[in-house]
Each structure stands twice: as C-alpha cells, then as structure tokens.
Amino acid sequence: MPKPNPRHPNFPIPSGPVLRAKGWRQEALLRLLENVLAVGEDPEKLIVYAALGKAARNWAAHRQIVETLTTMDEDQTLIIQSGKPIGLLQTHAQAPLVIMANCNIVGQWAKAEVFYELEKKGLIAWGGLTAGAWQYIGSQGVIQGTYEIFMRIAEKRFGGSLAGRFILTAGMGGMGGAQPLAGRMAGAAILDVDVDPQRAARRKEIGYLEEIAPDLDTALEMIAAAVRDKRALSVGLVANAAEVYPEILRRGIIPDIVTDQTSAHDLVYGYVPKGMSLDEVKRLRVDGQGQLMAASRASIADHVRAMLGFQVAGSEVFDNGNLIRTQAKQAGVENAFDIPIFTEAYLRPLFARAIGPFRWMALSGEASDIARIDDLVLEMFPDNKIVTNWIRLARQYVPFEGMPARIAWLGHGERTALALAVNALVRSGELAGPVAFSRDHLDAGAMAHPNIMTENMKDGSDAIADWPLLDAMLLTASMADLVVIHSGGGGYAGYMTSAGVTLVADGTEAGDARLSHALTNDTSLGVMRYADAGYDEAVDEAEKQGIGWFDLRGS
Ligand code: NAD
C-alpha cells in the first residue's frame, strides 16, 4: 500500500511488498518515477525541481510509461526520448529495462531560445539531472555535497570549524532548500534568502530551516547573536537576493561565506528579477518573456556584483552550480568568473578518486531498511571519515522526503562492495524489500559541464562530452537497469552533457552481476577520466585499485 503524502495528496509515496509490475526491476523503476513526483515541487505539472525539470513530457507520456513499466517483461527495453516513451523493443534479460536520451540538441542549435521553442511545440522536455531519470530523492540529494563544500571551506580558511561563522546564501527550492540544513549541520549561522514565501515555509515545515525572520534587520540580528554565541542556526528571509545582497554589503556586514542557489540558470521560469512581484513575473512568463529575460539579466548583474564585492572584502565566495556567473557575464559583469566554481575549488580531489554522490532508496518504503544500511556502511567503512561522519550526522538531522533514501559520497570499489552487501541482505530477507542504487549526474566520469563540473580541467578538456557518452554506453554494456544520456543543464541547452544510471538490488544473482559490473565500471571510467586529465589522485587511485587504465599521457 502506498503511504499518504500530505504535501501532495494525489501523489502517494510508494511502499509495501505488493508488486504491480511483472518483476521487482520494473516495479523499482515505477516506484522511483512515482517518488520523484511525490517529492517534487509541482507534480501536477510533472515538475520535480529547478523550475522546469520534469519527470515526463506530458501526462499522456506519463500514462504510457506507467502502463509499460507495469506490463513489460524483463527481456524488453523501453525507449524514452525527452520524457516521451517511444516504444518497447525485445532485447534480453541482462539489457537495461529503460534507456533515455533527454534534451540533447545538436551543437549549433543548443541555445535557450531554441529549447523554449521546441518545448512550446511539445517536442522536448528538460529532465533536470535526476528528475527526468527518476532518481531525485528530495533535497537530501544535495545536502551532503553542500555540507562537504562548507567543511572543505572550514578546513581551508577557518581552522576546521564553522562555529561562529556567517554563511549568506539564497534560494530554497528543490535543491537550494538543502542549504540551511547543510549550513546548520556544519555548525554555522546561515541566512538563506528566497523571494517566494511558500518555498521558505516548505523548508521550515520539513525541518530543513529553523526560523523565518520577518525582515532583514531581524534576520541580521538573529545571525549576529548566533555568531556571537558560536551557535549553529538557520534563518530564512523572504526577499529578493538581488536587493538583499547589495544592502548587506552597503551596511558593511561581510559574511564569512557567500553563495547563491536561486534558479539563475533560467531567466524566464526560474529567476525572479528585483522589484517584481511573483504575480507580475507569472504574467510575463506567458506574454513577456523577452522583457523578463532582460530584467532577470540586469538583476543577476547586481546580484553578482554584490557577491564580487563580498569577495573583495574577504568573504569566501563561490558559485554553487546555478550558472549565475555565466548569466552575469552575459549581462556585462566582465569579472564574474573571479568567483570560483565549487567543484574546482573544493571537491575535485574527491572526484579524481571517483568519490561522489552515491545514493540508495528503500523500495519497501520502510525507514528501517535505510537504518540497517546505515549500520552496514559504518561497519564496512570505519576508516572513511567523510562517510562515517556523514552517516552519523544524516541520521540525526536529515528527515526523509518520500521514499526513505540515503546519500553518501562513496568511491571506486566502495560503491560495488556496499551494493553487493545490500543485495545479500535483500536475498536473506533481512531487509523489507529490494533497494535501488543511483548517483547524481555530477559524478566523476558522468558529466561534462565547462561551467560546473569540468571548469578549468588541468589538461583543458573542459568541454569534451565524450566522457559522459562513453559512460552511458559502458553502463548499458554493463547491464544497468536504467541508463540516461542527458544534455542541457541550467540554461537548458548547450551547457552540459551527463550520464545517469539506476540499478536495482533485487536479491538475485543476476542482480549481483549487474551491480558489480555497472558500479565498478562507472567509477573506473571516472578515475580514468581524471587520470587522463593529469590529476595525481586519479593516477594513484588507478594504480592502487588496479584499474585497467592506459597511461598515454604526453604521447
Ligand atoms: P528551484 O527552481 O526549485 O528553486 C529556486 C528558488 O530560487 C525558488 O525558490 C525561487 O523562489 C528562488 N528565487 C528565484 N529568484 C530569486 C531571487 N532573485 N531572490 C531570491 N530567491 C529567488 O531550483 P533548485 O532545484 O533549488 O535549483 C537551484 C539552482 O541550483 C538551479 O539553477 C539548479 O540548476 C542549480 N543546481 C545546482 C546543483 C549543483 O551542481 N550544485 C545541483 C542542483 C541544482
């Protein structure tokens, strides 16, 4: 029986032992599709997060996907093109059940305007990253990434602790909503500004945000008091960041860390320009897109100029993956890229070892399955400080949204070992049901994004999309249950290409083979990608782990 979902009553949370599909693999993908809508921002419109990130092209497409997953055999493959099911073909029982290509537009045409046009004609949909591939698990999916960024900054600049430090950020949407909790978990006083009162209320309701301040003065007083007492605190403020950031700078208040996660990638359906009400913006989205884009750009320019002002004044400022620098540069802020991207600044040494955002979902719907796997992770990787610290914190702080799930940054070999151990628990009946494994697309071998993941690569290979394409082919050859090739990214067209994967630990021996091949090869390619680009950590990892990499550097 599905569980009720108070936030979206029409989208219950899948759970229980009863199968509607012909096997657990198909049922798993069906439940993951249901889950991304259950935890999504606007499921009635099929929107999961990031303004337009959709789970399916339209409701007819969604109905056909559900019907096919329910009736298909294990030796068939469902083909999905930008959220629309195209057909079902005979393959074999070790082939993926679902392959997808989402939002891939040929190079010269890969522009936001072309995307909007194709979208209007119903020919394409943007799948976000994990939305269209049915892998999103709520804001938890980015909490650890955000937390690890904050902790790397703590190590780099603040003696390892953020107690008594002030983080300023904006955006409390599907992804950005993770920031207040991640900041609090890192021990800081964090102020998160969002223009939409409903978004702030939602984050408070689910326990990701502690307080909503009535105005800027009060918000700054609350933060100052927490900083003084070295107390962790998350405060939300309903306001426009393009107004609030310059005002805080004008007052000479310099936060220790500044970032932003408004949906700046989307000048029409995402970002809200300063001086405009939400209703006005909604109207312009229909009949004034050009005007709205211009206003968003101008506003982002002020927003980023303030971020640069904080940087000059000594704040640690970084771009958190929303293309705000790119938009600002196009709006004339020539030095927008003085702000570094988080991947290069803090996380690249982890990616070079293929350590990245791995996650698992309890298909039974039982939180006890996640608790058992938490124990397993602590037993299996006692010396992995990042992961053991994270699992303990996540247990204490991170509420589940939708189907119980956990994210943990695991690397090459660790992912496979954990998945096989979980599959054994499923087989022995120790868990209430099978478990699905997935990862963010922002993973070592899986993403080419010259403004996020691969900015300033050592060998200059930032824009080469061969890696995610190879990854998707490799995952298909390695028997993954679902494989997706995805392009677009924030800005919708032309910014990135990524590969996504989902696997089902259904307790079978065939499941062992799928998990082992796909997870091992996925991270092997990640290590190879960074070794090839000249990263010492990756070369070391390839040697240590016996990954079959050909070292042809310099030849
Ligand atoms: P979302 O659309 O769900 O939420 C965006 C929020 O920004 C909304 O709540 C909106 O009200 C608010 N907002 C818009 N303009 C504002 C303004 N001027 N001032 C204050 N608030 C404003 O989007 P999301 O899923 O939270 O993603 C946010 C951004 O982060 C996107 O650009 C997305 O592509 C990016 N992202 C980056 C990563 C990463 O790599 N770190 C991961 C996921 C998402």
TrEMBL record:
Pathway: Amino-acid degradation; L-histidine degradation into L-glutamate; N-formimidoyl-L-glutamate from L-histidine: step 2/3. It is found in: Cytoplasm. Binds 1 NAD(+) per subunit. Its cofactor is NAD(+). InterPro entries: Urocanase (IPR055351), Urocanase-like (IPR023637), Urocanase_C (IPR035401), Urocanase_central_sf (IPR038364), Urocanase_N (IPR035400), Urocanase_Rossmann-like (IPR035085), Urocanase_sf (IPR036190). Its EC number is 4.2.1.49. The keyword Cytoplasm applies. This is Urocanate hydratase. Residues 138-346 form the Urocanase Rossmann-like domain. Residues 349-543 form the Urocanase C-terminal domain. Pfam families: Urocanase (PF01175), Urocanase_C (PF17392), Urocanase_N (PF17391). Catalyzes the conversion of urocanate to 4-imidazolone-5-propionate. One of its GO terms (cellular component) is cytoplasm. Belongs to the urocanase family. One of its GO terms (biological process) is L-histidine catabolic process to glutamate and formate. It comes from the Bacteria. NAD(+) binds at residues 174-176, 194, 199, 240-241, 261-265, 271-272, 490. Residues 17-134 form the Urocanase N-terminal domain. It catalyses: 4-imidazolone-5-propanoate = trans-urocanate + H2O. It comes from Devosia insulae DS-56. One of its GO terms (molecular function) is urocanate hydratase activity. Keywords: Cytoplasm, Histidine metabolism, Lyase, NAD.
